[in-house]
Write a structure and sequence with these properties.
87 residues; mainly beta; ATP Synthase, domain 1; eight-stranded mixed beta sheet; 0% helix; globular
């Protein structure tokens, strides 16, 4: 694994898995404000508000709009349980 892209991100809705892959950073619309996660981030669980989840893969910056949910960060693994992803 490329250490620059050393975090694994999964974005899941009740219907399907929206994204799964390696990322170098990710930004989330936290319920109390946006926040960014980098490699070796401390463990965290946070509620998500409505807004953009953006992340950087080897193909570049990507972004998805979510309608809220929860994000968990633990040992360079990020799991987003989104209520809904808007196309």
């Amino acid at each position: 694994m490329n250490t620059e892209y050393a975090m694994h991100l999964e974005i899941v809705t009740p219907d399907k898995k929206v994204f799964q892959g390696e990322v170098s950073e990710a930004t989330f619309p936290g319920a109390l404000g946006a926040f960014q996660v980098l490699t070796n981030h401390a463990p965290i669980v946070s509620a998500l508000g409505k807004g953009a989840v953006s992340f950087t893969t080897t193909e570049g910056k990507q972004s998805l709009q979510v309608e809220g949910g929860v994000v968990e960060v633990k040992q360079n693994t990020i799991v987003v349980l989104a209520e809904k992803v808007v196309d």
